[in-house]
Write a structure and sequence with these properties.
Blueprint lengths: L3 E5 L4 E6 L8 E2 L1 H16 L5 E6 L7 E2 L1 H9 L2 H20 L13 E5 L3 E2 L1 H8 L2 E5 L6 E2 L13 H9 L1 H9 L3 E2 L1 H7 L4 E3 L2 H11 L2 H4 L18 H18 L4 H13 L4 H16 L2 H18 L14 E5 L3 H12 L3 E5 L3 H20 L5 H9 L1 E4 L10 E4 L5 H12 L7 E4 L6 H4 L9 E6 L8 E6 L5 H13 L3 E6 L6 H18 L3 H9 L7 H8 L1 H15 L6 H12 L12 E3 L5 E4 L2 H5 L9 H22 L5 H12 L8 H8 L1 H15 L7 H9 L3 H5 L7
Parallel strand pairs: 2-4, 3-5, 4-6, 6-8, 7-9, 8-11, 12-13, 12-15, 13-14, 15-16, 16-17, 18-19
Antiparallel strand pairs: 1-2, 9-10, 17-18, 20-21
Helix pairs in contact: 1-3, 2-3, 3-12, 5-6, 6-10, 10-11, 11-12, 13-27, 14-15, 15-16, 20-22, 20-24, 20-26, 21-26, 23-24, 26-28, 29-30
GO molecular function: enoyl-CoA hydratase activity; long-chain (3S)-3-hydroxyacyl-CoA dehydrogenase (NAD+) activity; NAD+ binding
Keywords: Fatty acid metabolism, Lipid degradation, Lipid metabolism, Lyase, Multifunctional enzyme, NAD, Oxidoreductase
Catalytic activity: a (3S)-3-hydroxyacyl-CoA + NAD(+) = a 3-oxoacyl-CoA + NADH + H(+)
Length: 727
Amino acid sequence: MTDFTMQKDADGVAVITWDVPGKSMNVLSLDGAGELNALIDDALADDAVKGIVITSGKKDFAAGMDLNVIAEMKEGGAQQVFDGIMSLHHVLRKIERAGMDPKTLKGGKPIAAALPGTALGIGLELPLATHRIFAADNARAKIGLPEIMVGIFPGGGGTIRLSRKLGAMAAAPYLLEGKLSDPKKAKAAGLIDEVVADPLAAARAWVLSATDADLVKPWDAKGYKMPGGEPYHPAGFMTFVGASAMVNGKTMGVYPAAKALLSAVYEGAQVPFDTALRIEARWFTNVLMNPSSTAMIRSLFINKEALEKGANRPEAPDQTVKKVGILGAGMMGAGIAHVSAMAGIQVVLIDANQDNADKGKAYSEGLLDKAISRKKSTPEKKAEVLARITATTDYAALQGCDLIVEAVFEDPAIKAEVTKKAEAVIPADAIFATNTSTLPIGDLAKASARPEQFIGIHFFSPVDKMMLVEIIKGQQTGPVAVAKALDFVRQIRKTPIVVNDARFFYANRCIIPYINEGIRMVAEGVSPVLVENAAKLMGMPLGPLQLVDETSIDLGVKIAKATRAAMGDAYPDGAVDEVLFWMADEGRLGRKSSAGFYAYDADGKRQGLWDGLAARYPQPDDQPDLTTVQHRLMFAQTLEAVRALEDGVLEDIREGDVGAILGWGFAPWSGGPFAWLDMLGAARAVQICDRLTADHGNRFAAPKLLRDMADSGQGFYDRFGGGKKAA
């Protein structure tokens, strides 16, 4: 079976169809590139062929390069990667030149791309090498180059072609941010040429009427000047200075792909096009051989996709949710109702007060109105979604629900009350899920008459934006409940991880020590500026002090009191509590009160770190070095992840890495805490732990599992990767 086939018709049009067997979307492999190359040679050599159209046999054009193939290429080393990329450049450049005379630029055969739907990564890089791109008028289609999101950059000529086509400034959102557009916006931006009802018919007609001039790309024509100016032009110089500042400001220097991409554009703009492609290939190889790209591809593409497809789903019949009941119409319940209704599920949204229930439904209305104002939805879609949500106080409306998601206050008594009310009405085989971030599932399940059908589902706020959902198994939770939760998360298009019941589960178990370590350093007199910037320079999206401001300081106080009550004399965070409790007593509760570790203006905009911290906790001139602060912040999180695996809370390190990145933004460049420890090496990690333990206490003691791996020379993915679970 082949990925590409060609059909020649009597009019002289050769239609090359991309249709990878066994894949829902086309991806390009090296074998597929070879097939395409052979078909292009055939068509160019055939005098009966007047033009070529490249299209897809699927509803979409292509999803990109097969990242599993890229991983295989890396095993052969940098030279094999470079040679493989250059062979792809050769094929695309052959399409671009189309057999034309290199001196006169005449005599070539027109080649067009017909895109029926989504075209991403190489799925856009290939069309960019053709002479005209026709896309279907398909509002659901996405067009763009999202490679930067998984730690690489467009290496199939897309970086050089798009920057030369649009100019560095205009290309930046698509290259450096991975911005995706629907076909009409892609045309307006200059990514594609035409949006039509029938792209294949339009492309066929165009290749039969195209002239020699239609085939010459601007960068191949005499006198070409880069839009916006080359790097040595005054306007271009300012563009690249600004782009460099933007990249370093956003990435803090920890994402190698962004810097490499900008270097490829900058260097490539100063040389002939074919040399620029070699520069792009060299920088792409450089990035691909960087451990960061391996880790990001593995966590954000391969592992994430595997989890979304049910890698750890127990054997059980299909558990697609048809009707969901949501108890509690506050911010969390309203968010769950919205994503459920958007997924086509019937929703019953219950609250003790009808006004609150109506406000919960109005939350969806507000989000839909915003989407309409941005032309991302329609009034018809809004009416359809809102019609699926029934806002009520009547528990009888839960009849027929096959899943209940309880999202009331974090109070065991209230949760127990609504559990019993719901179970009195719902079908005997319905699954009951509690949305909690801290309360043990086993304790909450005591209120249920069906503990095997009781499970935890921890959503992150805001629900409509956060991609992770943490599913928590209680001791008595059965496989059908787990399957139901996983199938529901798949329906609402989020990424699940499944963990076992323990205090704080997985995500909060790791993020609380990160926050606490930052606060602890403030109490020690470490500059808050150093603490916050040390975190950001490691790739954390928010420093620990800003994070606690965002989640609210009084919530931190509540968690601290509950944890101290549960742990007694073993409670380790008294130094942290002194700071938190003082802040709360001062009325500095975080962003919501416009006063926290940061100062805020009258509009609630963050202004900078509050100077009152220095008065309460004087900062000596002798400050710790940056690396020490970074190690304290990073190991506070990663050691807790290792302990979660050791304790059996985590069963799969893939869930640990994906959950860390999506749940609290753990340094995405690293691939997650286990991938980061693998980069560092277990032996080196243990050395750092020993030093931190000697200087700062037993919270940094290396877990036995980490020491064992240091002794054996293993990495986490050596030992537990590929779907293997910890024993």
